[in-house]
Amino acid sequence: MPQQPPFPRSMLRASAAELIEEQLVVVEGEIPADLQGHLFLIAPVGSVSSDGLPNPDDSHVWNGNGLIHRFDLNQTPGGGIVLTTRLARTPCFWADLATRPGSAAAGLGFSDWGMSRFSVHLGMRNQLNTAFVPMRFGPDEPTRLLLTFDGGRPYEIDPVTLQVVTPVGTNVEWRPGADLPLPFPPVLSTAHPVFDPATATLFTVNYGRSTGNFLDTIPLVDRLDRLAGAVAQVFRPLAQLAGLLLAPVRSLLRRRLGVADFVHLLAWDGRGPLRRWSLVDERGEPLRIDQTMHQIGVSRDYLVLADTSLKFGLEQLLSRPFRRCPALNRLLRRLLTRPQKPDTTLYVVRRGDLSSSAPMVGEKAGAAETGSPVIARRLVIPLEVGHFLVDWANPGGRISLHAAHECATDVSEWVRPEDVSALDGRPLDPALRGMIAVGAMDLGRLGRYEIDGETGAFLARTLHDQSLTWGIGLYTCRRDVDPSAAPDGRLSSIYWQSLGFWADLLPEFLRRLYADYPHRLVPLPELLEGPAAGGGRPSALFRVDTATMTIADAYPFPQRQLAGGEWQTWVCNSPQFVPRIRPAAAPAAAADPDTDGWILCVAISEQAKELWIFDAAHLALGPLCRLAHPRFDPGYTIHTTWLECIEPRSAAYCVDARADYDPRLERVPDVVRELFEQHVYPHVEPCPRPPVTP
Are 274 and 171 a contacting pair, CB within 8 Å? Predict the structure, then answer.
């Protein structure tokens, strides 16, 4: 078998240092003279204990504090790009910092639980490390900026200082996913709330998964349930015994956590309380989310919610409970882990049905819900969906949805100490521990779906490329930064990033988990043993023409072996479209506005970490400019956004931290209340205006 291009280990190393106006250095090429505005990027950089990546306990690379990056484009006399970074410091960040190992309050501290960070005394960390949402609530108001996380409330940040300012909604307005008497409740939301500029409304979700739902993610429980059903045909008493064995476990967890399946759609006008609707299916049953709601979409007349392929179950929490016994960890992993669902459930909500909403009031969130539930029409797409976009236009009730299919590519699984290679059975490189296992188990696809918003019927067109669509992940397009760029309400060009296929990130465990993937395009022998295995499957940046469903332009990132035998393999991450800003007196551009600009992205190899600039209309020509800085040291970077100009946040909306958390401290020990008084409240900026009260 030919030598495989190695994944750059440097993506598992990152600095959490905060930088102030550091000017990037041009490595190659020239910065476009008319590049303007501000690029925002977010990346997880480990915990307060690790002070950067790697995580010392080999937990998931996404499990870490968010480090906000802002690149000021052409902001210096010489046309340079200036970088400023700042950690997203929420109240739970300050509690985490005050209880880190070695501190006086370390006994209360947080620890890494696989994909999350949790304290049995304090609750769940909201790490704010995933995505941004620009919001402009009025034509004369400055653009406001949200920072988000799947496991917590979104927060507003100040675009100038990069400080975390306020959560959206009080604790009372968000229903926890588990009823735990802890200061920081586990809240499930979406990392991609959507802002509708036509109505100046932010839409997001708040959902919960029942105890039974979580238990159903465990293959062992499923097998016992099926065994009980099978045995019942012959040995009914034994079947009843199996059921009795499971019942106490379910009952205990249900009593302890007190949760049920629910999905609430939330809307916000930037000023007042959240509006809320409880969603049910056509039978009147609460929606059941089996994995996560990583993304939602909006059109003129509909909202689209998705049960996305980012799975989250007990296995993502209990990753290594037996630190000194790898054999037990392997056994537990096999018993707890199921593959991600090979299809995607979508829910379509008619915006015309959102005529009234219910407040969340009272000591226990959700206790005083009123109003009628809203029906969400259910449909199933026969492939996994991680990210998607929705056209604003929906003529005749037809919704156009553009989806990335991460086929048999499980971003919820990561390289563990007990993992061995699927290719040769040898232990995987310890330097890769914590990295997403993106030795993809099948070729990714892109889809365009025309959905009837009233019936749920749909027509689909998909595409794939044997070289470019391995591990499709992040996206960007002009509409995300300039809603007026698509006056007909349609997306004509979408830029996608793919991580590629990396043989050294394919554990035998993942090969077994997805060996029987039902939508397979690439046979296992060709995937694992073919003469070109691992070759010709690079990380890539490409543009999709949505009308023809073709890849119109692409740049595969280099994979080259240097003279001394060392590899330089580049990975593309965090692409962002930046429109060309033309002077008002300039003639109208002849170019397609959807490609009239640049794509900026992070490029990482083992030898370098850089910012690359592409002509958005000519990706295949390669980067126009490459920039770096000795202190620009990111690891796995995630989503981005761009603002033409930034102003200090001046909005009156503010949730007062003390009023927000004091009610949750009534049932906690005195030492926890003292922690808030000494180490949390003093660091949280007081509201400059009358605060929003719970």
Answer: no
Dig out the tokens for 189 from the structure.
């939301």
Report the alpha-carbon distance of residue 528 to residue 614 in Å, rounded.
33
State which H helix or E strand residue 14 sits in: strand 14-15
pLDDT of 369 above 70: no
CA–CA gap between residue 428 and residue 416 (Å, rounded): 9
> Checking DSSP bridges between strand 131-135 and strand 398-405, what pairing results, if any?
unpaired
**CA–CA separation, 405 and 401 (whole Å):** 12
The answer to whether the bond into 373 is cis (omega within 30° of 0) is: no
Q: Structure tokens of 416?
A: 């563990």
Give residue for tokens 């802890």: 182
Query: What does the block give as tokens for 1?
Result: 């078998």
Please give the single-letter amino acid code of residue 536: G
Tens of pLDDT, residue by residue over 104-149, are 999 999 999 888 999 999 999 999 999 999 999 998 899 999 999 9
- In the sheet where 194-196 sits, what is the strand order? 194-196, 201-208, 262-268, 275-280, 374-381, 344-350, 302-307, 296-298
- Residue 525's CB is within 10 A of a number of other CB atoms, namely 9
Confirm if 176 and 208 have CB atoms less than 8 A apart: yes
404 alpha carbon, distance to own chain's centre: 14
Task: Tell the residue number behind the tokens 């796995």, with chain if given.
Answer: 636
Per residue in 265-320, pLDDT tens? 999 999 999 999 999 999 999 999 999 999 999 999 999 999 999 987 655 555 55
Distances (CA, A) of 191 to 42, 427, 594, 661, 689: 12, 34, 25, 23, 28
Say whether pTM exceeds 0.70.
yes
In contact, 212 and 314? CB cutoff 8 Å = no
Residues with Cβ within 8 Å of 100's Cβ and at least 6 positions away in sequence, in order, are 47, 48, 49, 106, 109
Largest CA distance in the chain: 85
Q: Is-contact 305 351, C-beta < 8 A?
A: no
CB of 305 within 8 A of CB of 299? no
